[in-house]
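pasting for ref. prot 1 ->
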Amino acid sequence: MDATYGSDFRDAHDELLTAEDLGADSGGRERRMHVRAYDYWMSLRRGRPCPSIHELEPDRIADFGPNSVLLDFSRSVTNPSVTFIGRALREECGILYGIRSVADVPEGSLLSRLTQECGRVLERKTPISFENDVLNRQGEPVSFRGVLMPLSSDGQAIDFVYGVINWKAGASAVIQAPPEAVVEQQPEPAPAEGELIDWLARARARVERALKAANDARSALHAALGLAYAFALLAETRAGEFIDLLAKAGLKHQPRTPMTSVVKLVFGASIERARLSQYAAVLSHARHLDLGCDDLPAWLDGVEGGINGVVKAERARRAPAVKPDPAARARALLRDASPEASIDYDGCEDEFVLLVARRLAQGRFGILRALTEQALVNRALRASAR
């Protein structure tokens, strides 16, 4: 592993706390599970930059152990081993046994969302927190919070990551803000599932807060586009409500480019034309790839060229197919044809020419001129190759 840490390893304690986390229970402890897990990680540091993996005993942690997972990156960065997984996470995955590596984690489970964040821990060499509200594997809204913390087996390389995640049913005002940014959490009631306008209002509020996370603008933008894409998928199932929303916003329904309307609704009708085009292309390409409602941010993080790369791919997909040139096809066919006769003729070096001839006596023809104008030649070639 090359994810070593040094003097630049920084204490991330303040960055993991929000105003909501600072609320204490009757015992004076932070209420949030991910903060209690972080405090436990801090207690294992013992003045060192990073705790030792040999001191971690997740199976003996009654508080958050059932909600935790330990990943071993010592053999593979892309598919780390799962050396421990708590029972609560196993049950949420729907698999009690057989999860030996990240590749075995069911897609769409909360554990899969936790493991997607591990790369940032290895890169930044510091704990990160994350939170979001999504649809679980049963299609039900779930809010979750998590924290990922680095550990070392030799005091040099960060080759283990310990994660803790907690969740509850029902949507909340949580956004997937960059973990190092302190985002103020404002209570926001979950919308009635039957009202598309409530989902739109909620998406707008979450996009606005995500875009204010200046410390990691790229991740915030990807998260915002993910919210817009999730709204677009929902709008597809509620076409009547969607058209009504467009009308109330003074926008026209564009059946051929529905993502343009979605971007205007979520990001605002005054969005710059260039950004409108870019964002709509990203959403359209994601729909073409049939991405899930929560898959867009991670997909954008990994795609080559980022947003610009996706825009280029979408434009290439929409570009009209190049029509075959009938004259070129005719030239290829006639190039292999056997000539009926041959004559000597000087003064023309073109491969194909149009000969003008005059009938002579006894069924013979005399060549008067060789025409090389491409339009005439191509027309004659197309007629000859039929």
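and prot 2 ->
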Amino acid sequence: MSPAIVLLAVRALLALSLYAFLAVLLVILWRDLRHAGAGQALKAAHLIRLGSAEARPAAFGLGDVNLVGRASDNTIAIDDATVSAHHARLSYQAGRWILEDLGSRNGTRVNGVGVEGMLVVTYGDNLQFGEVQLGLRTGPVAAAMAEDRPAGEA
């Protein structure tokens, strides 16, 4: 075998190794980006207070698990007599929001329907804890609050 053929074979082997390394690197980066994209929805999610102008502005950023209630140790503390101390749990699981009433006295509703057990909720739903209404929204908080502003408000 001539040295030229051996050199050509070594070059081809090195080129294939480089392409294999780049392919593995691209697959790892693609998985990371896909995983990070799923978390973007969570980072942009929030609850905004609906209803009277006196109650505004109120927006609550959401994490993986959010406890809603009147007690100060809740993720979302709502100072209202109709809200139980530990009223409900809103959590992000497997790419969807799950709402669970925690045995509250005045109940939890989604779009006017009572919640018993666990319920999947989506962006745009209106959640009611006692007499307090909050909207599950995504995107910029200011834009979502402007959309939900009652007619006649500036």
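The longest strand covers residues 88-93.
Residues 30 and 36 are 10 Å apart (CA to CA).
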